[in-house]
Amino acid sequence: MEFLGIGYQELLLILVLLLVVVGPERLPQMAYQIGRAVRQMQLYARAVRDEFRDEIDYLDEQYRTMRGEIELAQRTLREEQAKLNEGLAEVDATLRAAEAEAGSALAAPPLPEAAAPGEPAAAPGPGGATSPPLVF
To answer: 63-67: which pairs have CB atoms within 8 A and are 24 or more residues apart?
Structure first.
């Protein structure tokens, strides 16, 4: 088993050197200080991890909220676009019908004007077209 790339032999060598350098009287106190430091670092690491988790959860919640709002806006825009397309189709159909009616009205021969009672009917002019009466 290795810890940070250090095997049993290296760990035993480090402990013996530590015993020689620190001494047997201060070794338990030093082990206690190292244990406290490790626990404190674990607490800090846990606090940082929890803080990051809280922030990520908050960002995820904001993302879901924004995505829901965007989807709602897209759905609304699609519905409005469909309504506008229907209205445009109705207006287009009405314009085409009016255009066809105007085209047929212009293509039809003119009706002869009815003469008022007591007036002679207008005689057709050159080319068979009726001309309005001359008034002086």
So the answer is: none
pLDDT category at 24 given cuts 50, 70, 90 is confident
Exposure letters 47-83 (e unless 16+ CB within 10 A, then b) = eeeeeeeeeeeeeeeeeeeeeeeeeeeeeeeeeeeee
Contact status, residue 23 vs residue 15, Cβ threshold 8 Å: no
Closest to 18 in 3D by CA, of 1, 39, 34, 42: 34
- In the chain, what is the greatest distance between 2 CA atoms, to the nearest angstrom? 146
112-118, Cβ contacts within 8 angstroms, sequence gap of 24 or more: none
Q: Are 35 and 41 in contact (CB under 8 A)?
A: no
Threshold 0.85, pTM exceeds:
no
CB contact at 8 A, 27 and 18: yes
